Amino acid sequence: MYRFLLRPRWLLLHLVVCSSLVLLINLAFWQLHRLEQRQAFNSLVRSNSSTPVGPMASILTSATDPESVEWRPVIVTGSYVAKDAITIVNKSQNGTAGVNSVVPLRTTTGITVLINRGFTPLAQSVPAPSTQVVSVTGFLRRSQTRSFGGAIDSSSGAVLEWQRIDIPRIDAQIDGDIAAMYIQRLDSTPAEGDWPARVINPTLDNGSHLSYAGQWFFFSACVIAGWIFVVRRKIKAERSPK
């Protein structure tokens, strides 16, 4: 009665069903893995960002693991090196397209660090950085890397417009060494004007990963239910009098 299940077209059906289940279940667990990553990120941001502001030189040392201090609030004092200013393009805030202004700051302790001064809409000109000695408070951030399918920055020559804050690559076109992390500005003295505006902090929620995982598991169940329905209908047809 069940020998029909070994016929070529049924074997093909079994293969399609099994392949679909493998794909759907892996997609579900991929979303659960992304949920775990999101929760770990949220925990790190909440924990590190709530620590007291400290001098960058004492928090970011040669022995520091950048991942462990990301989102720590720090303060640095120094002078902007305006000639080495760069622009991070293709940014948006609150639905407005714009750019981020990044300028090296040569600190009074002899360290040079990149400062993400913040966001400026495309309709506005990016104001020049202060020529005075400034004190900048902000979050330590790791160097950004290209995501899968992301735009590519030039690998040679002096570049003024960038897709991301790639510290090793930017370091190659700036005199002297720069710190292994950059600072996302929260405040500065003297204060900036209306622009650049401080970069919006990430939203610390779990996103839609759990619901997406549930959908993939549901689709898996539908595939199994569909296979059972088709097989049972065929068995019923086989049992029916000819």
How many helices? 5
- The class by helix and strand makeup works out as alpha/beta
| CATH 2nd-level architecture of the largest domain | Beta Barrel
Q: What proportion of the residues form beta strands (DSSP E)?
A: 15-25%
Mean pLDDT: 92
Count of beta strands:
8
Order of helices and strands: HEHHEEEEEEHEH
**Low-confidence parts, pLDDT < 50 over ≥5 residues?**
none
Portion of residues in helices?
A: 25-40%
What distance separates the N and C termini? 14 Å
Spatial extent as radius of gyration: 27 Å
Q: CATH topology of the largest domain, anyone?
A: OB fold (Dihydrolipoamide Acetyltransferase, E2P)
Profile the largest sheet: 5 strands, mixed, barrel
Strand order of the largest sheet: 2-4-5-8-6
| Principal-axes shape call | elongated
How many domains, as an integer?
2
Using the coordinates above, name the CATH class of the largest domain: Mainly Beta
Short description:
The chain is α/β, with parallel strands linked by helices. The chain contains five helices and eight strands. The chain has helices at residues 8-49, 56-59, 66-69, 167-171, 209-239, and strands at residues 54-55, 73-80, 86-93, 96-107, 112-121, 134-142, 161-162, 181-189.
